[in-house]
Amino acid sequence: MTPALRQGSLLTLADVSLERGARRLLQGVTLEVGSAELWQLVGSNGSGKTSLLRAIAGLARLGVRGAIGRSDSFLYQGHLPGLKPLLTCRENLRWHGSGRVYTEMQRIDEALAAVGLAGYEDSVVMQLSAGQQRRVGLARLWLSDAALWLLDEPFTAIDLKGTALLESRLQAHCSAGGSVVFTSHQPTAMDGLQVLDLNQYAA
Amino acid sequence: MPPELGLFLRFQVQRHLSAALRRPGDIFNPLVFFLMVVTLFPLGLGPDPEVLADFAPGIVWVVALLSSLTVSSRLFQADYEDGTLEQLALAPHPLALAAMSEVLSHWLLSGVVLALASPVFAAMLNMPVQAIPTLMLSLVLGTLCLSLTGAIGAALTVGLRRGGVLLSLLTIPLTVPVLIFGVGAVREAALGYDPSGWLALLGALAAGGLVLAPLAAAAGLRISLEL
Lengths: 203, 227
Fold this sequence. Notes:
The complex is a heterodimer. Chain A is built from 6 helices and 8 strands. Chain A is α/β, with parallel strands linked by helices. Chain A has a 5-stranded parallel β-sheet with strand order 5-6-7-3-8, sandwiched between helices. Chain A has a 3-stranded antiparallel β-sheet with strand order 2-1-4. In chain A, a hairpin with a 2-residue loop joins strand 1 (9-20) and strand 2. The radius of gyration of chain A is 17 Å and the shape is globular. The two termini of chain A are 25 Å apart. Chain B has one domain. Chain B is 82% helix and 0% strand. Chain B has helices at 5-21, 25-45, 49-72, 77-82, 84-90, 95-109, 111-124, 132-157, 164-190, 196-224. Chain A binds chain B through residues 57-62, 76, 78-87, 91, 94-101, 124, and chain B through 2-3, 7-8, 11-12, 15, 18-20, 22-23, 78, 81-84, 86-93, 225-227.
């Protein structure tokens, strides 16, 4: 179903079009993401940023046409946090859709410390503030070994310091040879950032 | 290659159990419901111990079925709403295994707890003492079947806002054999006969369901997630 990915590339979109219900959202999206690339998807509300990202992750099959080739080593973090409110930060971070069960508590604690949540390891997520919960979700980026990151609005509900932290994490991932595709409305000033404007593909 | 499947299953069950144990009220609410309904029967049928003993197997089993149905209808709802279901669908592990972990933890917290508490209800309805071990065993096996069928319905209705009625229509017909075998076993034991034939049938249903129902539930989840 997914065509073979070109050597050295992490994501290939060839003439992808998206339909939602009876409405065509996007038409003819073509994109090639190699290693160590940072892509921001921009576009007005309802232009299909989230839908495209979900289609890339494999969470939407209906209404997707065209060829999507994606590396198997990927991490998808959508609008929904994927956190269990009744579990602690540590317990929540032990598993994510990448399939790995983290057994090294030290690594989890380091990730929590990296997002400024040291001391909250055994706090139940329900008792944290909305911004802190976002940070718990983002701590997964410090745990992930996946090559391709697909992040939907990662900068939402994060304070300025957190934004800087997240930007530096994304850039570190790229310098290590990984790639990131994220959606965001905020203009960000990261080195080597490439922008794909979805409005030009509006159907 | 997905990491060990057994580890994944055990890990997911553990996760569900530790979350559920932080909110023990959710475990006891179905028991309170059960207790209240069982209390209503002597009021409705009259306090004659003979009459109650006659109806007891049917009463306990019908109430067990209803309480299981009300709880299992929301089996995947929380996972759907917080995005865990998306991640489970993306994971390299089979979605059926995730569904099975959900069913097993739900069963441990509802069905098994109910079976353990059932002697109290049996005593309230004047059930003969020799039928109580059979009642417990039949409830352990039967509630597993009920959770498994409930999971198929819950998977199909997870994205719907008013899935409750539809779910009852989908799953109640599937639970009829469980009810018949379960009541049959308890009635047989109450009369002093050997209930093992009925229990074997329930066991066969549970074993078959454990293999097949997670596959059906996973297919239902994929439909609900529009995958």
